[in-house]
Amino acid sequence: RSKTDAEARTVYLTPASVEALTAIRPADANGEASVFGLSAASISRRIRAAAAVAGLGQGFSGHSGRVGMARRMAAAGAPTHEIMAQGRWKTARMVEVYTRSEEAGRAAKWLA
Description:
The chain is an all-alpha fold. The chain is built from five helices and no strands.
């Protein structure tokens, strides 16, 4: 459960996501430590630090992965309701905001 997910719904992860989360999960004798015990500020700091090490510059935050997921799904042709489910958005409006450039790119092919 969290502030934005009082119902504690399940989110499915890709194998690459599981591997990345496993790499940052704190050591626990039972192997049950939670990655998500981190605060939003801690996650943002880690993402900014990783982006800096990778030479990606500034402008990254804890929200970057969620936005990137929406953009990648839209670019792959995923329907809006699927993107909404993965991003846990209740309305299509936020999906539209985050995927506007992908939609414009797909529309441009019809103008050529």
